Here is the input.
Amino acid sequence: MNQPSISSSQDANPLVEDWTTPFSVPPFARIKPEHFMPAFARAFESHASEVAGIAGDPAAATFGNTIEALDRAGQLLSRVSGVFYLLASAHTDDALLAIERELAPMYARHWNAILMNEMLFRRIDALYSGRGDLALNAEQQRVLDRYHLMLKRAGAALDPAAKARLAQINERLASLGTDFGQNVLADEQSYVLELEREEDLAGLPDFLRAAARAAAEERGRHGKHVITLSRSMVEPFLQFSQQRDLREKIFRAWIARGENGGATDNKAIIAEMLELRRERARLLGYASYAHYRLDDTMAKTPQAVRALLDRVWVPARARTLADRDAMQEMVQAEGKNFSLAAWDWRHYAEKLRKARYDVDEASIKPYLALDEMIEAAFFTANALFGLTFERRRDVPVWHDDVRVWEVRDARGRHCGLFFGDYFARPSKKSGAWMDSLREQEKLTGDITPLIINVTNFSRPSEGKPPLLSFDDARTLFHEFGHALHGLLSDVTYPAVSGTSVLQDWVELPSQLYEHWLERPEVLGRFAVHCETGEPMPQDLLRRLIAARTFNQGFATVEYVACALVDLELHLQSEEAKLEPGTFDITAFEQAALERIGMPREIVMRHRPTHFQHVFAGSGYASGYYSYMWSEVLDADAFAAFEESGDIFDAGIARKLHDFVYAAGGSRDPAELYLAFRGRMPSPQGLLKRRGLLDEAGAEVS
Ligand SMILES: [Zn+2]
Here is the structure.
């Protein structure tokens, strides 16, 4: 293969050069879309030749010449893909989106060749069979196990015909997943609800009016107000807008993402993906894709997942129906005679919350300034783990909005950089996530991580401080918990660094972190009024925290419905072969929801046609339950602090650091949890936290 001539000076490619920037951060200003394909070509090639060298090594396999060598390989690829996927999600454009589509099958092909390499598998299999004699430490043992399982699950042990078919399936799935995500983005970008008349703004608090003005401005509609399909605009609009017809309009557009017919419709993509996943699982000897995916999780089986979801569903549904009746009464009391619809839920829930707890979102928001909430997240990390954060302005970033902090541990040692990219903009995909440009490891030197949080908070209007909803603040803490999992990682091998853990464990560090936000020790200190600087009144703070379990029936129902539908979709077995063209995802969704008794007034949090966790790539396919599995763990883990009487208890924090945040995937998660807590958890803590136990603390059934 020809070496692309990208190292010559006339067409220097910053992606493949040494980065002389502070902390070797990518020189974003110099990186252009046209640099990616040549850099990827070179990165794929050098990685492939490294792997060929390992697989074809005439020396007998050792842990060093096989596992360590593999874990060390592919550095250029990690570096180029780190930059690319960050930009393709957080600050994308047509050129990057086109590259993303082109790249998806190339990526799949590249990894297929490695993961199905028979010679490589034989070496790893030999090591695995003789692992008792290798004198490996616990982390090395785990890394060997992971590589062995990864190749086995990719089909390395199959016959050539099956391998060839698997490779085809993987490539096709990669393309379909990319198309799926881009279609959702296109539907989001192409729609805005313009609020033309003054009465269209009725009920909207100042922050939302400001955000609607800023969103209009960004789209060149000066002086207008628009509501986009971003969750942080739609949800408050549904809460506050007094115009029922407009609520219906935005809600319908929001839940129709990916289902609008035409070029961006995802229904046919879903049918094809489900069939390919089913076939893939069958080739690998599993009854269904769900069986295949769950085999490598803490939960292990669909039955275990179903048992947890059912246990939570029953009380959540009961709570929801009671709340619905209370809201329907409010509608009547207002002298209106419509039946509560999905686009009314958030509106009346807000009213009900106000009536029951005397807290409303608009009175809380001025106390939740973005900058203070960031400080609150840092304060918590300091109180628990001794971390300090220093703002850096000399580090390259991909957009002016991005803020950077240098992170140091309790002894003042540098542990990495933290990047925060908080505001929604048209070039950003929706949602909130953690990402990394470089992960911690010690195999190739003392490598410190570059960790990123991306969120879609509404941008304030000129001169106003950015304010968050309580949900936004929770998202900030959640993503920061993931960030700490990356920043505190203290392992040797890249394969098990930071968030490279089993999927139903990965949400533990993030969801656990949310607990601290809700405590007076944190919120009471950082919730100060954005104009007066006054702390949130004690009484409001108390009511806000008391209202935490309010509407949890709804939140649980809209979530569990997604997890159950995700599981059902991937449990379809051999005889239920899906014929693309005949499989109707909308009908499937309806039937599945009917079976579980989904309340008519609630729609899945993510309907299938925009369920990116499951279809934009296969990240959470039959794994959406993971959040709840992790919540069983996080509720139980936080109880350890509560039981001690000190939410920053040093001894517990030390264990939490060692066995959760620093441990990455270096040991089996059940083992890690046992080491942290001394026992395994039960779902009681989760039910209690969601307010789903009856007065006596018993389960509702
Ligand atoms: Zn998360």
User: Anything to note?
Assistant: Confidence is low (pLDDT under 50) at residues 1-10. The radius of gyration is 25 Å. The CA atoms of residues 314 and 368 lie 34 Å apart.
